[in-house]
Design a protein that fits this description.
Helix content: under 10%
CATH topology: Methylamine Dehydrogenase, Chain H
Number of domains: 1
Mean pLDDT: 89
Strand order of the largest sheet: 1-28-27-26
Shape: globular
CATH architecture: 7 Propeller
CATH class: Mainly Beta
């Protein structure tokens, strides 16, 4: 048995956190010192101890659905968040419950649906929803100058909602973006103007939902689509005659054979595991099962299915390399910590806390325009 498969085979629920209010858990980010921050559909940020999942506090301030959350890399006490209200805010992780310490605004017409912070904590970038039925924008700020005006805007690279922005993990000038227009763009921001900065455009042939950097030197891109397509591209081939595509499938669900009683209904996202040198892709079922898969040039392979945790769709996950642990969150308002040999302290599976008006979202495992749906749900 391979090292990664052996590690995943021992995962079980160690902790379960169940908020009293019905709220979807949409995204999460981890501070190396042990704080876990989670974005919720009620426009709040919850902070938890990563080992116990004990709620330490929450932040309020956004007036629209949240679309991104990350800890700063060089100042780990700062949490950055973005929202459809057209703002990016920074919060002090040492002072739960306090107001935001920094505020970055876009144009009054901008409603953000994606966001990220560069690895050097120098640049903030947010992607907008489509404006005037024809334009979408990548909006940039200098993260070192809170309250300052925009650094610039890219306006030609996408024509529909920009669903994700991802800076390179080690190159402060490299960034990727994807959109419901089906395009995945790669930029070298050191080149300045948009036309010169655009290095490559890959077409997912569908509405792209997520993109992430992978491979040992982070030279590959994983793209997921809203109809559960999966594409893996090698950017090292940009200046060669070799094809960029490492692997591509229009519906990844058809590739994975699950055990009887299980189903793979959707993909959540992917993450590169540096210690295992593997690309881990996480998917799930509408009933709350979690599927852990490995992806490479040969395709997608199921490594482990986790059952008995969530009662509904899983929306986000995080891999904690230091403890070999997995954290998952979803539409049932539950936050779960899966660890090797974990023994849950609380008993019983928490039932879904969905309100009646939220049931219509459950029938749509895809994340397409989720932030718009939530506006009328909560």
């Amino acid at each position: 048995m391979e090292v990664l498969e052996k590690k995943l085979s021992s995962l079980s629920i160690a902790r379960r956190c169940c908020p009293e209010e019905p709220t979807y858990l949409l995204g999460m980010t981890l501070q190396p010192e042990g704080v876990l921050a989670v974005s919720c559909s009620n426009m709040t940020i919850h902070v938890h101890d990563k080992d116990t999942l004990k709620l330490q506090g929450e932040y309020h301030g956004h007036s629209g659905p949240m679309c991104g959350l990350t800890f700063a890399h060089t100042s780990p006490h700062l949490i950055y968040s973005a929202s459809a209200d057209g703002t990016v805010r920074a919060w002090d992780a040492r002072r739960p419950g306090t107001a935001s310490t920094q505020l970055f605004r876009g144009d009054s017409s901008h409603s953000f649906c994606s966001f990220d912070l560069s690895c050097a904590d120098m640049l903030l970038c947010a992607g907008t929803e489509q404006v005037n039925e024809k334009d979408s924008f990548l909006v940039f700020w200098d993260a070192r100058k809170p309250g300052a005006s925009l650094l610039g805007v890219y306006s030609e690279s996408h024509s529909d909602d920009i669903t994700q922005v991802r800076f390179h993990p080690t190159d402060k000038d490299r960034m990727a973006s994807c959109s419901t227009d089906g395009l995945v763009n790669v930029f070298d921001l050191s080149r300045g103007a948009e036309e010169e900065a655009l290095l490559a455009t890959c077409n997912s042939d569908s509405s792209a939902s997520a993109v992430s950097w992978c491979a040992d030197d982070y030279s590959q891109l994983l793209c997921l689509s809203h109809d559960e397509g999966l594409h893996l591209w090698d950017l090292r081939q940009l200046d060669t005659e070799h094809p960029l595509t490492v692997f591509s499938c229009r519906d990844a669900r058809s590739l994975v054979l699950t055990a009887p009683g299980y189903s793979l209904d959707y993909l959540v996202g992917g993450v590169w595991l540096e210690d295992a040198h593997k690309l881990l892709v996480v998917g799930g079922s509408n009933a709350g099962d979690v599927h852990l898969m490995e992806c490479d040039g040969e395709g997608l392979r199921l490594l482990r299915s986790l059952r008995g945790g969530h009662a509904s769709i899983v929306r986000c996950f995080l891999w904690d390399a230091s403890g070999g642990a997995l954290v998952t969150g979803g539409e049932d308002a539950q936050l779960l910590l899966w660890k090797p040999g974990g023994e849950e302290l609380t008993t019983g599976k928490k039932e879904s806390m969905k309100s009646a008006s939220a049931l219509k979202v459950k029938s749509r495992p895809h994340r397409k325009h989720l932030y718009k749906i939530l506006k009328s749900t909560f």
